[in-house]
Design brief:
single chain; 342 residues; mainly alpha
Length: 342
């Protein structure tokens, strides 16, 4: 009896890049809906304009590289980058800010290194960090959430994007900003004095985090990625926050629940950290990779100059991912461990 000649890889479930990207886009919908409910139409306008620009820049890069447009545009990777960056940007960002971010993500972080599969850094996070360092005022101008201020309408959102000089928007600090700047109020008093604080993390942000958690769990169920990196990141961040939480003094760094449900924690854990190209690939490597991102997020939030640190932590660990993989390679079947038996 002859054996079946079937070569690896033996993949189950979604294997085509386009299908995986479509599932990622679907998984962002709950978070986008919640952000729209609490912050208005700004996030939708961000995504719409970023999507147009991403496809245009992708087509331009492919044309210059003499690659077939239909094949590469059909993988939806440029659109995923646009959606992730559009979500990460403050609502009601001006058109030129989004354009600079998308150009940095698509042209510099992606095609400069050879396109999808060759980029060492997460393109959306490169675009975000370029904007955060270059335009800190615009990148920290967050609109007040529903319940803490009046929400602009759709016309206002379009005006803020394409006619920013004529838009008189109202902004306020995020809960992470307030916590970093606080040096006199107890946590309970800080919570009561600022309407943008919600029940656990931040009004609007906490529900968006839960929505992104739901989308991430659905991707996990679909086996788009494994649990190792996101769970390791969240567990490490929770552990650090629990170890250094003093109960709510003026010097407090915030409770574990606050860190989990504020800022980009859940969004980063399930939609950024799990990027298969720029992250570690071995099982042990993913655990280490996620844990170090969680550690860096907490350290930068508490001791750094930026209130949210997911983008910086991810890019630092993108740089370290090949090193992690080098020292966490699984043992080849049939070979002995170093200094051990077979």
């Amino acid at each position: 009896m002859s054996l079946m000649r079937i070569t690896s890889p033996h993949a189950h479930g979604p294997s085509r890049t386009s299908r995986v990207m479509q599932q990622v886009l679907l998984a962002t919908l709950p978070g986008v809906i919640v952000l729209t409910h609490f912050f208005g139409f700004g996030t939708l306008v961000n995504i719409f304009w970023a999507g147009i620009l991403a496809v245009a820049f992708e087509a331009l890069a492919l044309k210059l590289r003499k690659r077939p447009l239909g094949f590469y545009l059909g993988d939806y990777s440029a659109l995923v980058t646009a959606v992730l960056l559009g979500i990460a940007l403050p609502p009601y960002s001006p058109w030129w800010l989004i354009a600079v971010g998308i150009a940095s993500a698509i042209l510099l972080a992606k095609h400069l290194y050879g396109g999808l599969g060759y980029n060492p850094f997460n393109p959306a996070m490169v675009g975000y960090v370029v904007l955060l360092i270059s335009f800190p005022v615009q990148m920290t101008s967050w609109a007040p959430p529903r319940g803490a201020g009046e929400l602009p309408g759709l016309i206002d959102a379009l005006q803020a994007c394409f006619l920013p000089a004529s838009f008189d928007g109202v902004t306020m600090a995020t809960p992470l900003d307030l916590l970093k700047q606080n040096d006199s109020l107890l946590m309970e008093d800080l919570w009561q004095a600022n309407p943008q604080f919600g029940r656990w993390g931040g009004l609007g942000w906490e529900w968006a985090s839960i929505a992104f958690l739901a989308g991430g769990l659905w991707l996990l169920y679909q086996r788009v990625f494994t649990w190792h990196a996101p769970l390791s990141m969240l567990a490490t961040l929770t552990l650090m926050a629990a170890l250094f939480y003093d109960g709510g003094s003026s010097a407090s760094g915030g409770s574990p629940l606050f860190h989990l449900l504020s800022g980009a924690t859940m969004f980063g854990a399930f939609f950024i950290v799990t990027d298969p190209v720029s992250s570690a690939v071995s099982v042990r490597g993913r655990l280490i990779y996620g844990a170090l991102i969680g550690l860096l997020v907490y350290l930068i939030r508490i001791f750094g100059n930026y209130p949210d640190a997911v983008a910086f932590a991810v890019l630092i660990m993108n740089l370290a991912a090949p090193f992690i993989d080098q020292y966490t390679q699984p043992r080849t079947y049939g070979h002995a461990r170093q200094g051990g038996d077979r």
